[in-house]
Amino acid sequence: MKITVDFEECLKDSPRFRATIEEVEGDVCELESKLDKLVKLCIGMIDAGKAYNAANKQFVNGIRELAQQSTKDEVIESSLTKFAESLQEMINYHTILFDQAQRSIKTQLQTFVKDDLRKFKEAKKQFDKVSEEKEAALIKNAQAPRNKQHEVEEATNILTATRKCFRHIVLDYVLQINVLQSKRRSEILKSMLSFMYAHLTFFHQGYDLFSELQPLMKQLGGQLDQLVVDAAKEKRDMEQKHSTIQQKDFSNDDTKLEYNVDADNGIAMEGYLFKRASNAFKTWNRRWFSIQNNQLVYQKKFKDNPTVVVEDLRLCTVKHCEDIERRFCFEVVSPTKSCMMQADSEKLRQAWIKAVQNSIATAFRDKGDDGEKLDRKSSTSTGSLDSGGEPKERPLKGESALQKVLAIPGNACCCDCGQPDPRWASINLGITLCIQCSGIHRSLGVHFSKVRSLTLDTWEPELLKLMCELGNRVINQIYEARREELGARKPQPGDPRHEVEAYIKAKYVDRRFVRRPSDEELRNKVISLSKQEKRLSSSSEHLPPKPPPSTPRLRPGSNASGQTVRSADSGIQNSADGSREMLATTPSNNSLSDADAAEPAPMPATLPPPSPCKEMVFYEPKEYSSGLQLYWASFARSLPDMAEALAHGAEVNWVNTEDDKRTPLIMAVQGGSLVTCEFLLQNAANVNQQDAQGRGSLHHATMLGHTGQVCLFLKRGANQNAADIDEKTPLTIAVEAANADIVTLLRLAKMNEEMREAEGPYSQSGDETYQDIFQDFTLMASNDPDKLNRYQHYDPQRP
C-alpha cells in the first residue's frame, strides 16, 4: 500500500494530516514486525539448509566409501563415484544458494530495518516533541491577558518561534515518510528478486549437471534389466551346484588331493599341513603348503609372502617318520636342512609323499629335455616366485588421469586452499583445485584459468603430460613468492567463499604475490636459457627425424630386374607396432647385386633430405623483457621458466623483431617439445601467427619433421593452406621432404575439412577415420614418440 503525505497539507497541521500520519506510523510499525519475522524465518531456513547439507555430505561420503569397497566391480565403483561427484556438486550449489539467501534476504533486509526505519523513528520522536511544544505555545498565547502587554509579546514570540521550528521538522518528517515508502518497495523487491535469481541459477546448474549424467543413467538402466536376468540365472545355477555338492559323500575326502604337474595355475599340489618349527621348543604350526615351480613353499595367511622351504626339489628326498610321537608325519630332507611335516590322515600323508616324489622326477625329466628349470605360473594364493622366493611385481596398467596428476608432489591438495583430494584442475596453469576454488577460477574467465574435471572429462595425452610437468608446488613458488613477505594469509579449507575469492583474484588476476625480477636477474635468466643445451628426455619425442636410408641406383619406377614397380594404392594400414602408416613402395633389397649392395647409392633427386634445424644463436638484445624470457624458455623446454615469464606479464604471442619476428610458439617447435607447444596453446598462443618468412608454427613443425607437433597444431586449428613468402604450404614442404606421416596428416585434415564443408555449415562431426587416425598419432606422439622418429619416403607422383 503506497501512502504519500502531502507537503502542503502538513503545514496546515489539519486533522486529515494527523490521520494520515497516524495511518503511516501504524503501517511502518507493522512493516517492521513483518520484516523482522521474515529475517528470522530466513535465518531458520539457512540453518536448516546447512544442517541438510551436512547430512547430505555424510551421505555422499557413505556412497564414496561404498564405491571404494566395490573396487573389484568396476561398474559399481565407476557409477557410484560419478553419482557421488554429481551429488557433491549439488551440495555445492545448495551452499551457494544459501549464501545468496543470506546476502539478499537476511543482510539486505536487516540493513533496511536498522538504517531506514531507525531514521523514521528518530524523525517521529522529533515530530512528536515539537508538536507538544507547539500545542503548549498556542495555549499560552491564548491565555495571555490583554492588559499585560509584555506577556502578550512574550507569548507571541514563543508561538512564532515554535511554529517556525514545527514547519521545519514536520517537512523533514514528511520527507522521511515519503522516502521510506518509496525505498520500501525497491528494497523488498530487490532482495526477493535476487533470491529468486539464485533459485533460477541453482536449478539451471542442477539441470545441466544431471543432463550430463543422464546418458550414464540411461545406460545403467538398460543394463539393470539384463543384470536382473543374469542374477536370477546365476542364483539358479548356484542353487543347483549347492544341491549337487550337498549330495556328495565327503566321508573319504582325504583322497581328493592329487598331484597334477600340468595344472593351469602352475601349482602341482596344495593343502594344509602341520610344520614343526626349528626352535628349541619344536612347536607345531598349521600352514598352507604348495608345490610349484619345483619348490616347496608355505604361507600363514593369504596376504603373506610365501616362505620357501625347499628351493630345488631335485636335491631333496622325502621319507616317512615313524620314530616320533605324532602320527602321519613325513620329512623332506635337503643338503642343508630338513623339514618335518604332519598330514591330517595316512592317505593325505601318502598323497603328499607321492606328490613330492613326482615333482622331483618331473623336474629331472624337464631338466633333461629342456635344459632349464620349470617356470610355471603361480596361483593367486601364493604369487609368482623367483629364485629367492619373493613375489614378482606386476606392472601397473590403466592409471586414470586423477591418479597420474595427484601423484605429482603437491598436487594431492588444492593449490589455493589446501583442501585434500582435489577433483578439478586448471589446465593452462597446471594445478589441481577443489570444487569451491574451481568455481572461483571459472568466474575469472578462460583468459586467466581454464578449469576441467579430473574425473568427468576426457584427457588428451599431451594435456595430461602438461599437468605432470608443472603442478601446485611449481606454480605456488611463482605466484606465492612474496606472500609471506607481504603477510598475506593463505585460505584454509572451510574458509568463507568471499575470502577465498579475494585471495585467488589477488594471486592470479592482480599477481600481487609474484616476485618481480630485477633487470640484472632477468638478463642472467635470459642468457642462461639461451645457452642451455637441449635436454633429451627419457622419451624420444625431441629427436629429429632420421635421414632416409640409402637406395639403389634404379630408374624411377623400375626394380633391379627391369620390371616396373607399381606403387601401392594410396591408403593407410596398421603397422606391426600398432601405428598407422602411409603405404609406400621401396625396392626390394633381395634384387640387388653384390656390387650394388656394396656401394652406397646416392639419394634420388626427387627425394632431397630434410633441412636441418637452424642453429639457435643468441645475440645481445636491445632490451631484456619477460617476453624474451618466454621466448628462450620455450626453446629450452623449461615449463617452470615459461610459467614464470607469463606470471611476470609476458605476452604469449610476443614477437622477437631481432630474430625474423619469431614467436615463443615457433621457438617451442624449434626446441622439439610437444608439451611446451601445448602449454603455449592452452595459454592463448596464436597457432597461425607467422614470422618474417611468412611461416607459422605448422610450417616449422613440417620442415623439422616433428609429426607430433603437426598433429597437435592441426587439432588446434592451424591453417594448412597458408603459404610462406616462397609460396610453399606445409603440404608442399612435407611432400618435398618425403615425410609420409606428415603428408598423411595434412591430406586427411584437408579431406576432413572438405567433407565438413560439403555437409553444411552446422556439421561438426567430421570423418570417423580422420578422428581415429589423429587419435592414434596423438597417443603415439605422447606415449611412444620413437615410432614417429622414422623417416618415411613418400612418392609425390602417386595419386
From TrEMBL:
Residues 399-521 form the Arf-GAP domain. Keywords: ANK repeat, Cell membrane, Coiled coil, Endosome, GTPase activation, Membrane, Metal-binding, Repeat, Zinc, Zinc-finger. It is found in: Cell membrane; Endosome membrane. It holds the Pfam family ArfGap. Its main location: membrane. Residues 379-388 have a biased composition (Low complexity). One of its GO terms (cellular component) is plasma membrane. Residues 266-361 form the PH domain. It is a peripheral membrane protein. This is Arf-GAP with coiled-coil, ANK repeat and PH domain-containing protein. It comes from Mastacembelus armatus.
